[in-house]
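Is 2'-deoxycytidine-5'-monophosphate placement plausible here? Inputs below.
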Amino acid sequence: MLAILPHFEIKLGDFRGSIVNSNLQFPNRVTNKINIAIDGYSSCGKSTLAKAIAKNLNYIYIDSGAMYRAVTYYALEHGYIQNKGEIDENMLVESLHLILIQFKYNSDSQEIETFLNGTCIDKEIRSMQVSAHVSAISAIKEVREKLVRIQQRMAENGGVVMDGRDIGTVVLPNAELKVFMTADVEVRAQRRFLQLKNNAVDISIDDVRDNIAQRDLLDTTRAADPLRRASDAVILDNSNLTEEEQFSFLMVQAKKAIDMKTLV
Ligand code: DC
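Reply from A.M.:
I modeled the complex. Tokens:
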């Protein structure tokens, strides 16, 4: 059973009030729980692995990418991103305090869903349109500062598995276990293409591959918190690994890190 209760609320801007009923959100938090930071390239399967590990350890899974996607969706909906991709950064930064992001656990699907100002946007934030602009939005310093602070607050009692691009390097530099995931771009494109097809999205494999390559470039070359491997991160190249193999690999690492923490 995933340790996320139905109502998990984050409000950008008003940080003090950002996690509603935090004692309810994090029941029985004990300090010997570790934090696990999973970073890596787009479409590497980070979230699938992070969710499975969180479920097995009864930890909280936090999808930091969904938070950047929610802000991107908000910017698109409010016309802060022009057709050619130009972003009205001032308007977006001034509006950050109006953005309410919530993660809620859906007991039917047994999945965590992302809500923006009360509306479920789980499908919308996975669209190609959001994917096409999210790297540019996530390169905005003020957006990162807000989200990083909130992510740090969410993990401060341990027991979190968080995936993203800067978790091991910036958000949780003291995480007891850091993993850096990578996979061949062609393998990632095929996996993502199948996922989109299953969701009835009409797109060519070439467009999917281009988007992934473009995001790799933007994520690794941006000035603010670029994607890079933390020096103490374990590398996991899953080009030729099944989900089960990745899970077993990471569980061994997690158990070791938990034992270490228990001994200290
Ligand atoms: O993990 P994802 O593909 O859903 O992430 C979407 C984008 O958000 C990705 O292109 C980079 C950005 N991101 C980030 O900059 N920092 C994070 N911690 C998570 C995601």
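Short version: The longest strand covers residues 100-106.
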